[in-house]
Amino acid sequence: MSETIQVPTMAEMMAAGKAPEVLFWVGCSGSFDDRAKKITKAFVKLLNKAKVDFAVLGTEESCTGDPAKRAGNEMLFQMQAMTNIEVLNGYEIKKIVTACPHCFNTIKNEYPSLGGTYEVVHHTQFLKSLLEDGRLTVEGGKFKGKRITFHDPCYLGRANDVYEAPRELIQKLDAELVEMKSCKKRGLCCGAGGAQMFKEPEKGNKDVNIERTEQAIETKPEIIAAGCPFCNTMLTDGVKGKDKEGVIEVMDVAELIANAEDL
Amino acid sequence: MNYIPQILFAIVLLLGIGYFAKNINKLVRNIKLGKKVDRTDKKGERWANMARIALGQQKMVVRPIAGFLHIIVYVGFIIINIEVLEIIIDGLFGTHRVFATLGLGAAYDILIGSFEILAFLVLVSVIVFWLRRNIIKLKRFFYPEMKGWPKNDGNIILYFEMVLMILFLTMNGADFTLQQMGADHYVQAGAFPVSQFLVPLFEGLNEGTLIIIERTAWWLHIIGILVFLNYLYFSKHLHILLAFPNTWFANLEPKGQFENLESVTKEVKLMMDPDADPFAAPAEGEMEEEPEKFGASDVMDLNQVQLLNAYTCTECGRCTSECPASQTGKKLSPRKIMMDTRDRLEEVGKNIDKNGKFEDDGKQLLDDYITREELWACTTCNACVEACPVSINPLSIIMDMRRYLVMEQSAAPTELNNMMGNVENNGAPWPYNQMDRLNWKNE
Hints:
The complex is a heterodimer.
Chain A: H1 10-15, E1 22-25, H2 27-32, H3 34-49, E2 54-55, H4 66-71, H5 74-90, E3 95-98, H6 101-110, E4 119-122, H7 123-132, E5 147-150, H8 164-172, E6 176-178, H9 208-218, E7 223-226, H10 229-241, E8 249-252, H11 253-260
Parallel strand pairs in A: 1-2, 1-3, 3-4, 5-6, 5-7, 7-8
Helix pairs in contact in A: 3-11, 7-8, 9-10
Chain B: H1 4-31, H2 43-55, H3 64-93, H4 106-134, H5 149-181, H6 199-202, H7 207-231, H8 239-248, H9 262-272, H10 304-312, H11 318-322, H12 324-327, H13 334-355, H14 372-376, H15 383-387, H16 394-408, H17 414-426
């Protein structure tokens, strides 16, 4: 990566006496997972291009506690939550954007009663608003006519009723959006939620990500679009498992937009 | 005048309603074994949900065939109950078709005519339901938890409904024939668009025989309804009543929002408060509280709405057929979670009936009913919650039981313990250093 990206931290902002428009909550996946880091960078490039005044917490960010909570460890979750809330409130954060639906859901819904109330948006919602406000434009050329199917992340879709923002972005690319047989409210999980990402699945006759990948393949897509780093991993593995690498790409919606803009 | 039928009727009615009331009391008592939960906020939204989901059957039609047939049976059930009201009045006062004598005129014809058409449609729908369960063998009716009693229960309910509708039409057919014969007591009233086709069956029978047929059908019909009413408590069929309170008390928050345990908040705040003295003795006069149990290992640890959910479940299996774990052959079935909860709650209830209060029976919901393998297979995706046509939440029970396993028993799968250790030590589920969190920027 030669081009430089601008990623100011809250600490730097604070030192300069500035307050950003929005905090980008990167999340553990976005910070450490090799595949998810590409999504993080794609999103940052878009933020830079749209001249969004944002910042990240950097080393002051910590796990939201989502996997601990879904695993049943409420104690650890609340410790993580309260520590994070102290940091966020210390910086007087008002608005948060994140590319991880698990972080999105946890901060949006589960932090308020512990003292952390913020406006929280998913990166697809944020990108959509940038387009609507004319701060970002997107040319569809590169993806024109490509068959793209969108996999609804459970914690974005069913959990929070966000179905349209990612779809509208895909349509902005002049791509052909095709739906899987179970989508939106009835979208099938990728298999990673509820802390399943971190353990082997229970005994069964198939892995959930394979089942979901098969549903995606049925739509004969060129690209499976995702909006969650965990779904991305699960579907990428699924595509590999079905020997469709090189035929079908799994990409985050932010990557699609960034690619269209040659970022 | 002979009052014996009326007295007999009153006794049957009192017995039928009395026994039902007794069981409903038991049901309420059992639900109250659960923890209190405040679900009385936003009343407007709650009434609207009940109207939309229970009364309006909104979520039933997500699956159009079953939804359409169900609406017929549901509408039939409600409308035909107006006829039951007439039957009860007739039975108590020795009248016959009392509504007809109120001077309703053509309105009565329309009423009886529509009951008949509905009864016929109900009969057809119920037969289709039976075919789906027994001949077409829809997959969702054949999961392991549906073996034995649950399978028979489903069929018994359908037989009940078939018999009740046939009795109703037989009663009307015989009545209509008697009306045409000008039999005493049988007022000329009502329209019989369906049962008129039964008239040829009664041809050649004399008035006495017809009256016996009409009376027998009348008595069996009303007794059948009372038996069915009392069968509800012992079957999966309570949803016809409980769907209403269940949708009213349903969770109104976003599905992804899991409740933050207050007992934990207290402890965490104490832990994080630099001024707190961990060795402080309780203040004078203040009783040291027994620490609250985290999560649920038995039905008494669940909340009252979760227990109401268990009684409301009618085992349709939409949750299980949408569950990613079930779809891929894992042991978890959200329907089984609800059935187990109810079975255990009933067992606890019977224990109380016998002993006056709950005596430890060495059993609990965890392990004796719901296994850990089932609990750990859940992806918390909320598909089951979304699928339920009456707003039952199996996921909340799974979560409470996971909480018990992790916080009371430290019994999480090893890999999850590793993940949680990482979160605790590094602030991420993987073993990376928190100080490296921004390294991606320069990679």
